[in-house]
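2024-03-11 09:14:02 DEBUG pipeline.ingest accepted 1 chain
2024-03-11 09:14:02 DEBUG pipeline.ingest length=274
2024-03-11 09:14:03 DEBUG pipeline.predict start
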Amino acid sequence: MLEIPFPLERLPVAQIETALSRLRAERPASQPILLGDVDVFSAEWAETVDIFEEPAAILSAARALDIDAWFAERTLPPPPRPVVRREGLARRLSTRLFARPDPVVPLPSRRRIDALKDHARDLEASGEGSVEELAEIREIIRAVECGDAPMMFPDPIDYVTPRRGDEMVAGLVDTAEPWESMAWLQHGTYAVCAPRAVLVACCRWLWDTHGARIITASTDHIGFQVERPIARIEDAREVLRRVALLGASEVNGDTRHTSGETIVGAARLWVWWD
């Protein structure tokens, strides 16, 4: 396993917002990023990071990049076919099925319920799915179709908060500016889908434009605290377009839907790669 390149700080789940504010005050040169359960994060790092690129080199390339020109030269590819992965299925889908892409937004639109039904049928036919797993999947389908599904994780901090235990960890990344912390996050799908210097430069643009600071990370998302919430629908759609060009599948604000309208005014954004 490659060594995790930043220290981890254990924080109490019950006072996580206060603990996060305290860390920023005590260590103004560090960017605390909530990573969830320490054992889960360590296992994910060990499984996904074979080569750790030097952050200084990534940052140098990101600073040299004209990110506006990079995005201006590119258009979105056609939407991919629906895919449902079995790993972490219940948690992932119970979290994500409530975001329905608006057709006017240039993000890949996927019929999650249909894909989930197909997956349940495949599991049942192959005999691979346990009774409990199939029951959980069917309950998710029923809840969403009936419109009574709760929004289980309303923001990115909730998503990384362990369901058990009273602690979670934050990675403390020493940086000159908040956006630079993205160069250290190399354990997620985003590190495969997007050129790392471009992704870091996009985070610089989000910070400069909207004051978007990275506060959470997992293998499938990056969460941002937004100091200057997006005010115009045109700006929101440009955010969506840019992250989609970096391979992201969705962007959520503090609402259930994925669209330009619903990230306008959002105090937190989470960008998904899955």
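2024-03-11 09:14:41 DEBUG pipeline.report Confidence is low (pLDDT under 50) at residues 82-87, 89-111.
2024-03-11 09:14:41 DEBUG pipeline.predict end
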